[in-house]
Design goal:
Helix content: over 70%
Largest sheet: none
Shape: globular
Oligomer: single chain
Length: 149
């Protein structure tokens, strides 16, 4: 294991899960606390979380159950935003990508493939997030009142 690596994050969280200190439904410690406990930077913690999710998914007896919880997670995030349009979009995207995500869950028995699939998913989500942020900035710029010189 490389010191200061995402592997340290995975190993630490697994060391909490195995003896039952961290159980299903429990929240992970805050990013800052994890970084301090493990002795890594916060970006390392952020990099380690997708690897953790992938490694735990690979250990599941029923990866399809993960898919159900994953859809539920995304629905809960949309509902908590209080935006009915976002909730409708999540429903639409869930339906469109269900088969693709089912295949991803089925690959969970192969940790390397699952890791790549999770990385692809996160890359795609970050790309969409950046596009939406750019659109929002452009809309705000267009809406600013112009001042006469």
């Amino acid at each position: 294991m490389i010191e200061g690596s995402a592997d340290q994050v995975v190993a630490h969280v697994r060391s909490l899960i195995e003896p039952g200190a961290l159980r299903p439904g429990d929240r992970l410690p805050a990013e800052r606390d994890l970084a301090s406990r493990i002795g890594v930077s916060r970006p390392t913690v952020r990099a380690g979380l997708p690897a953790l999710a992938t490694s735990l998914l690979a250990l599941m007896d029923a990866p399809q159950a993960f898919l159900v919880h994953d859809v539920g997670f995304h629905r809960a995030v949309a509902a908590s935003a209080g935006n009915p349009i976002l909730a409708a979009l999540i429903e639409m995207v869930s339906a469109l990508y269900y088969d693709r995500r089912r295949q991803t869950a089925a690959r969970a028995r192969d940790p390397d493939r699952a890791r790549r699939a999770m990385a692809d998913h996160l890359t795609e989500a970050r790309r969409y997030q950046a596009q939406e942020a750019a659109r929002a900035r452009e809309l705000r710029r267009r809406r600013r009142p112009r001042t006469a010189s």
